[in-house]
Please model this.
Amino acid sequence: MAYLDADHVLVDVMEAGHDNTGGAHRHSPGLSSLVTDGTWLWRQDFPHYLETHHVSLPERFLEHVRSLN
Model:
């Protein structure tokens, strides 16, 4: 979670929104902003879905994060 939250915003979108399942969203402002670590790209609200709904991460992404300690 910390890794996904700590990287750089590539495209900052000013908007508000809700969790697609209807619940509260911890990234309500700018939720579709794009974040990158220089190799991977994800929406700013992705950590919310990982934390709240336990979506799966690709094994290649996990290997990349682990390789960076």
